[in-house]
Amino acid sequence: MGFTHADWDVTFPPPASAQSPALVLHAAAWTDVDGAEVDPQGAAAVNVGGTRHAAELGASLVYYSTDYVFDGRKSEPYLESDPPNPLSAYGRTKLYGEAAAGEQSWIVRSSGLFGPTGKNFVRTMLSLARERDEIAVVDDQRTSPTYVGHLAAATRELLGRPFGVWHLAADGDATWAEFAEAIFEEAALGTRVRRISSDELGRSAPRPAYSVLRSEKDAPTLPHWREGLRECLKRLA
Question: Is 147 marked active-site?
């Protein structure tokens, strides 16, 4: 059984109809990174309190976390054993949510999620490309853009592994500007990318400059982010 936000606002205890599941895939989250700086309590109510409510169902839990639990000061990929040090309110609430998930949980850290539905970078870039010939995109934040279809397949495989923290992200890495250029190239669009710095963009929440995730454990592997991009664009078409 799947619950949308209309069915269950996770800031409240679970509805009676959600009792006794065998497994909980907890994907509900406050994902507005800049909005969390303005309303950290609201973000915590969803990312921490909501996770605690999901854990109250008493089933094994998959909790989707983020690369933003790290500060980005490394110059090589972050592993599960690296100590978190979030820079933003969003990152802190996701880290606290990891603890709220409990011991019978798989903590899945991923990065740069995109897919054919919902609000994400790929859909935003394609939408802006219909309006502009050139788009400014930051070129000093490097991550591993991850296609949600590949993450879902890896999650299914992960269920055979022990509980704990796992890094599941696409192979390869890119800056957001490089990712945007790949989107326009794969979509055969002539839109240009103007590479800018995070300071030029002027967002309220700090982001890690480098947040590439890799696993030091027996984690399922995901295809390269460019393969995910092609699959996503096919579904959008």
Answer: no
Judge whether 55 lies within some domain: yes
CATH number reported for the structural domain that contains residue 126 in this entry:
3.40.50.720
Taken as a whole, the chain contains a residue count of 237
- The pLDDT tens digits for 118-176 are 999 999 999 999 999 999 999 999 999 999 999 999 999 999 999 999 999 999 999 99
Domain that holds residue 221: 23-236
How many other CB atoms are found less than 10 A from the CB of residue 129?
19
Domains of the chain: total: 1
Among 64, 68, 78, 90, which one carries the catalytic annotation? 90
Q: Where are the beta strands (DSSP E) in the chain?
A: 23-26, 60-66, 105-110, 113-114, 134-138, 142-143, 146-147, 164-167, 174-175, 192-196
How many Å apart are CA 21 and CA 62, to the nearest integer?
Answer: 13
Would you say residue 155 lies in a domain? Answer: yes
Q: If DSSP codes are grouped into helix, strand and coil, which group holds residue 135? A: strand
